[in-house]
Every structure is written in C-alpha cells, then in structure tokens.
Sequence to fold (372 residues):
Amino acid sequence: MQARHTFSIPLMRPIVDEEMLQAALFSLQNEKLVMGESVYKFEEEFARYCGVRQAVSTASGTAALQIALQSMGIEGNDEVITTPFSFFATSNAVIHAGAEPRFADVENDGFNLDPHKVEARLTPKTRAIIPVHLYGHPARMDEFRDLADDKGISIIEDACQAHGAEFNGKRVGSLGHVGCFSFYTSKNMTVCGDGGMIVTNDEQVADAARSFRDCGRTSRYTMQRIGYTSRLNTVNAAIGRVQLRRLDKWNEARRKIAKIYRTELEGAGGVELPPTETPGVTPVYHLFVVRSNHRDQLSLHLEKNGVEAAIHYPIPIHLQAPYRTRYGYLEGSFPQAERLAGRVLSLPIQPAITEGEVRTVSRLVRDPTISE
Ligand SMILES: Cc1ncc(COP(=O)(O)O)c(C=O)c1O
Fold:
C-alpha cells in the first residue's frame, strides 16, 4: 500500500462541526433517506442565498451541469463554448448531455474564459456558453451577457468553485440563465460527500431538472424523459444546510488570508499573484493560485518543507487523451491555457489556516534560491 503523505500545512481541509454532526444524526434517524425534508429545505435556502427562485439539488456538480444542459434542450449538433482551463467535468458534462463542446482560450492576464475569444468562436450552432468562475474569481459576466443575449445564446455559469462570489452586487449563479454548483469535499462549502445544485429563475428548466435527476419522473409512476438516479442524499442535504449558514463567514476568512498572502508575496521575484478584487468583483478564493516559471521547483520545495501545494490544472482539457482522440487537438490550440497549465500553483487556503502558517508558506515561496 502506498504511504499517505501528511503535511503540516495542508492545501485545504473540510470543516465538520458539532452542529453538522447533529444535523446528520437527526436526518438519519428521522427523515426519508432519499428526498427527505432536508433536501427541499436545502434547495429553498440555497435558492434564496443565490437570489433566484429555483434550486434543484443533484448528486454532483457534473450532474448539475449535464442536467442543466439537457433541461434546456441542448443536445445533438448543438455547440457549447467553454474554457479549456477548468476541471475537465465542465466540458465532459457537455459531451454527457449529447452536445459538442467547443473551447475558447482564457484571458491574457487572468484565469477565466475571455469573452472576446468566445466571440470569435461563435457559430450558428452555438446554443450556450459556460463561463467558469475559476478558483472563485467571477468571470466577466456583463460581457458574456452582452455577447449572448441578443443572439438567443444561453449562459450557464459553472460556479462549482465560487459559492457566494459576487459580480456587480449579485451572487454568482444568478447572473446567467442557469448556475451550477458542486458540494464536493474540497469546495468552499461541502455536503461532506458528493453533491451539486442547479439554480435558475426559469421554472420550466427547474421542473425538467427535477425530473431528470429523479429517473425522468413527473410523478411516482409516470416517466416523461430518460432520466438519471442523480439525487442528493438527505443526510448530505442536512449537512449542507448548516454549511451554508457558515459560508459567508468562511469566505470572509478566505479573503483575509488572500490579503495576507498578497502583502507577504508582494514583489517576490518571479511570482505572479492572482487577479485583484476590482470594483464590483468579490472573489471567494476557493484557491489562491500564483504563477511562476519555476513552478515545479517551487512545488517540490514546499512539499519538502511540509506544505501541501497542488496544480489546478497541469493539463488543459483539450490536451487530455479523450479530447485529443475525439477532436484531434494538438499543443498550441489554446496557448494561454497551455501557458497557465505550466505555471500555476495553488497555495494552502482554508478558513482555519492561521496567519503564522500563511507567513510560513510565503517565506518558502519567497526563497531566493528558487525565484528568478
Ligand atoms: C469548475 C468545476 N466544474 C465542475 C466540477 C464538477 O463537480 P463534481 O466534482 O461535484 O462533479 C468541479 C469540481 O470538482 C469544478 O471544480
């Protein structure tokens, strides 16, 4: 068996407190284990939190994206434009839904999909755009809306890394036609397992999604579509409700940690910091990602000193084997995404990390034997 490396400063760590344990226990002892009351309450509360009318929980963020696409009738020859620099579930969901993912490159100075590059990739078959609020930093939603609205193209926000982030005073998830979230254990809030959520103001899409996630049912014995068993378990919803109540406080803590990193790493040779909080843009620092031409050396240096770092993501989606095979992508297809893949490094960030730990990590990052 391979030994598990334990780090004195881990990258991230889910928080499970007494109230969550009690909520889980209560749910297991008193509720229907599937589609119990906590599921509906969690959906109501999450919709309210995002500022939308409808929320439909699912078994994962990937399922949320796939079901959202299918609920909007996106299929067959329809094209969906998204970023090649994300977790590969984003574009996998398009393929699962039966449609065709098309990529546009990311911003030259940030991590998110570039609206101008998307514009150049639009075709008459484009039905939707999926901007990803990568690392918890909101994508340029006003520009995506301008691009899509008058052409009848839908925007599906992949907010799987951005619970609670805001753009021009509105929470992500409420800015497009549909928003999708993941509650996987590493996220800013988790259901302590897999889980996801679709949020929207479109009642028809929400109804279709409720049916898709529950085998295609419209009532107990009536099937309207070929659906999935993709429900959120009740016990996970019960935990999610408590986590949601902590989310704003945790996000505030993450922003404070990011601020300390910025102060500590300001001017560090060869280390580029993440995009800053511009007016109207409130990120939630799911990850604190620096860029360095010495990324691998830096990563090793941190690891040797007990600090866990990670690379999100070392291979852009279009260069992963199934995409190369299916679509024939080669190196050079999306240069900006490829450049980021070689330079990004995620430093530890989580609400419970101490100021001292952040300074320790920063000191290691600033080590002059590594930087240029
Ligand atoms: C940007 C992004 N999209 C989609 C997903 C898929 O979510 P899940 O792992 O819950 O299926 C994730 C998370 O893992 C993600 O980070």
User: Anything to note?
Assistant: DSSP finds twelve helices and 15 strands in the chain. The CA atoms of residues 35 and 236 lie 11 Å apart.
